[in-house]
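Hi all, long-time lurker, first post. I run a small reading group and we've been trying to get comfortable going from sequence to structure in the token notation. Rather than ask abstract questions, I figured I'd post a concrete chain and ask someone more experienced to write out its structure so we can walk through it together at our next meeting. Sequence below, copied exactly:
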Amino acid sequence: DPNWKSLTQSQVDLLEQWVAEQGGGLIVAAGSVYAGEAIGGWVQDSSPAMTKIKALYPVEFQRRFSLLEGESYTSQEPWPLQFTREGQESEFLWLEDNASDNQRAWQQFAGVYSYYPVRGPKAGAIVYARFSDPRAGQGGELPVYLAGQFYGSGRVFYLGSAELWRLRQIDTAFFDRFYTKLIRQVTQGRLLRQSSRGMLTVDRDRYILGNTVKIRAQLTNAQLDPLAAPEVPLQVFQPDGRLQTLSLPADPSRPGLFGGQLTVLEEGGYRLELPVPESNERL
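-- Answer (accepted) --
Happy to help. Here is the structure in token form:
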């Protein structure tokens, strides 16, 4: 629950560029101290710096302030997290090594007492879990608790409160495992940076048949400036050995960023390769 207003405009610009252009990973937890500040808080601040900060988040904040919207919702009893299909399939959120053991582990977790109310997820964001108190639902949907999104070539992961330390009540190893795997997930853009000319990333490592793979490429030209091109070709080596070529169109909102998607139709391993324009390198 950071006080983003303590950063200068130039510091905010550096943070945003680091995530978007350098593949940085950011984990943010909402809370009642700064996100819920009733008067003069950063959520209600429409300055260019705070607008850029809010763009990083995978959730949409309330546009108008009210008592309910500006403060965290707190229950007198804990509520377990209700994982979406995407949350159940995302191994970086698993507390155990396989799906069935992981489900049993999360079922032992009594839950959390609070969350920060938001309007909902942004377009393109993935909701992994919701706060399960039915009294807190609005418009037929439970509140967002865990969500993530690509931001440029980086990743941002959102927690609706900072209460997952409560996993220690079951097993201290669960708490360590949760954050270790989450940190590795959001920092993939930095860890897997293959070249000074760019990086190629996907949203997770494993998929179920029928899933959509979201693909991002951040590329520069020979002068290390953002690559200007309408699209770049991506080579997909499928499990049966066939080669498929996809076009990743340029993202008009971010110079040098290209994105596309691929549907998983066969079991097995896929390999993605992207020839870097104006070079002999491949990502």
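A couple of things your group might point at:
The chain has seven helices and 15 strands.
The helical segments are 9-22, 48-56, 67-70, 85-89, 99-107, 172-186, 188-191.
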